[in-house]
Please model this.
Amino acid sequence: MIKTLIMLPKILITLSNGGVYLQKVRCGKKNCRCASGNKHNAYYYFNRVDGKLTKKYIRKAQLKEITAEANVITDVRNSIRHKSKLVKEQKRHLRLERKARKEAGIKEEPFDWKLLNQLVEMMLKNEILGK
Model:
């Protein structure tokens, strides 16, 4: 799992699988405009920790940094999912080809499929890890 730690003045946020969202909130001051119903904008980082939804307040000064980090982590996770899907599709295709050859009575394989599987997986791992 990919995690990034960001230190805020009083908060430690572990960025892993969440996102930054805007909420309308009341600050609690008696003379503020939000007391009459016109709420403030506030940004929070939402994620799940042990199955429970957590939220942490994000200061405006840290908003761009945390949003950028959350987007990078999301992009990496999506890339890993996409590449895993490609590997599964390739393996499925190879199984179907073997089955078709077996049903047709062809005993020998045109080349070493295990080697091809290993090469595909190595290439994907190197792309994912950025080697």
